[in-house]
Amino acid sequence: MPNNDTSFMADMHPNVAVQFYDRVAKSPEREAFRYPTKAETWESVTWAEAGEIVRNLAGGLLSLGLQPEMRVGIASGTRYEWVLADLAIMCAAAATTTVYPTTNEEDTAYILSDSECRVVFAEDDAQIAKLVARKSELPYVAKVVTFEGKTEDDWVISLDDLSALGESYLAANPGVLEAKAEAIRPEQLATLIYTSGTTGRPKGVRLRHQSWVYEGSAIASLGILSEDDLQFLWLPMAHSFGKVLLSTQMACGFPTAIDGRVERIVDNLAIVKPTFMGAAPRIFEKAHGKIVTMQAAEGGAKEKIFKKAFEVGLEVERRKRDGESIPFGLGLKHKVLDKLVFSKIRDRFGGRVRFFISGAAALNQDIAEWFGAAGIKILEGYGLTETSAGTFVNHPDANKFGTVGPPFPGTEVKLGENDEVLIKGPGVMEGYHNLPEETAKSLTPEGWFHTGDKGALDSDGHLKITGRIKELFKTSNGKYVAPPAVESKFKAVCPYASQFMVFGSERPYCVALVTLDPDAMANWAEENGMSGASYTEIVRSDEVKEMVQGYVEQMNSQLNRWETIKKWELLDHDLTVESGELTPSMKVKRNVVENNYTDLIEKMYV
User: Fold this and answer.
1) 253-310 residue pLDDT tens
2) DSSP E strand boundaries for 61-164
3) d(CA 125, CA 11)
4) In order of start, what are the domains of the chain with their CATH numbers?
5) pLDDT of residue 198
6) Across-strand partners of 463?
């Protein structure tokens, strides 16, 4: 059951540096990290080994003249070196500025300039090229450290070069890192994360050492993770969700296997065999869609057994949730079908997963229940970059579908005007960097953060997110519609869905733009006589349009009349981060999509 005991807060480490050094001292010979080599084998690193690397890198940063709270950028995908760099920055008493590797040249320069970064870790030649092209806009950047790029320019050095500088600096200045760690105040800046945002320029969220220490300590206090767990981490470390999982590792001591290549997730799960993993809902939607469509392609007896298994599995799970007994016959069926169907699904994820944690966007309840029926728990959580991401999470022993769980111990929540969710606690940001007016709009003088999300609290203190205040619109008939709720239902009924975007503000009815998942549609094409056809040819076919219409009608049957989709258009391409229509965390930039397809939306009202 959830633990509301806040006594752990009295014993929290004062900062991330001390927390990290303490973990190294406690578990020197235990595995800390695992990462893939170029030969696709996995290399293991102990806490003691990681500690030595981090110390040398931190010393290298100090040798470059870094002072407390000076910013150091990391422009890279998720990888072992990202984690080492981040820890080294905080152990040097500096602050990490995160940059998604997909961020364009202009925004990369803006983020690094606005944050006044003095050093930047750049993953490879592609990231270096962005910095070189905008060097005149980066007056504060004295040195670029690359993980695997070329170092032909004096401005750019390798990670090994930085480590060598650090080794020499520490030899000449013994005890300097210990002194730095002791001097870091809990309220000192640790991280600047620029929210990708769905509108306007990114805003730098100032998060303190106490926030990350609190996040890890609060999750550790729930008792759901231990040193014996194994995490698979692929989430973008530039996103606060990834950072929370790293903080949790420091607090709990479990090892983490790291590989940010999204296309390798399924293969890696089978090899690594983790006990838990954090992910955005899109990963679960894609996995659900792939498994369902593959089984449908089998047809015949196999498909019938598959459907029967989920019929039985869902009933068993419902009875467990409601505290009802499971009849002998139902239990026997479930045992047989678990061996025939569910065990094979669990094996696709490595066979050892105790639970997944879903965050960054709303998880469809039907998909969560589908995984639950297969014996795979998905614990939905909730938080924002401004609250250090982790703020609410369900507990494995009290997992309520459709809710994001209770707040972390030590975090307060209340509902404000229009049922807006307000949050107060150690995880809440200091404010927006260089934006005092924006900070004042979002944070009350008493420390309550305005999330902009509508919610409801049940009798057990579990929060249900019911919509986004700014996304809620009213039709010309005076009815309110919450687009995310409708969109989520379509993704639950259609295993081929990628994006489903609802519009209808001040209009007589709702319409939608639809995109389908390219991988799922390639499989569909194989089974429907269109093998080798392009994605555009596939989605323009009458057969696909008829299929989508069937799913729209199925979804409409579950909606209120004023929410139903009267017309829809299928785009001949999926949305991408590169096009600017998705944020790096895979959220739709609704205003950008609406602007890009205004003419198409208007035609649906003719």
Assistant:
1) 999 999 999 889 989 999 999 999 999 888 888 888 888 888 877 778 888 999 999 9
2) 71-75, 95-99, 117-122, 143-146, 156-158
3) 44
4) 7-239 (3.40.50.980), 281-351+353-468 (3.40.50.12780), 473-603 (3.30.300.30)
5) 46
6) 457
Residues in the chain: 606
Tokens of 296: 């449908």
Q: 394-443, pLDDT tens digit by residue?
A: 999 999 998 999 999 999 999 999 899 999 999 999 999 999 999 999 99
Q: Is the dihedral of CA 443, 444, 447, 448 positive or negative?
A: negative
Hey, what are 190's tokens? 């640790």
Q: What does each C-alpha distance from 14 to 53, 472, 578 come to in angstroms?
A: 22, 41, 40
Token pair of 446 as six digits = 């008493």
Q: Please give the pLDDT value at position 288.
A: 87
Nearest Cα neighbor of 469 from 459, 457, 455, 458 is 455
Residue whose token pair is 């809710």: 403
Could you give the percent of the chain with pLDDT greater than 90? Answer: 68
Q: Helix axis angle, 240-252 relative to 80-91, nearest 10°?
A: 70
Residue 323: left if φ>0, alpha if ψ -120 to 50, beta else—which one? left
Name the strands in the sheet holding 565-570, side by side, starting at the edge strand that comes first in the sequence: 497-503, 510-516, 565-570
Phi, psi of 319 (to 5 degrees): -65, -40
How crowded is residue 119: how many other Cβ atoms within 10 Å of its Cβ? Answer: 26
- The total of other beta-carbon atoms located within 10 Å of residue 339's CB is 11
- Rounded to two decimals, what is the model's pTM? 0.84
The Cα–Cα gap between 323 and 370 comes to 19
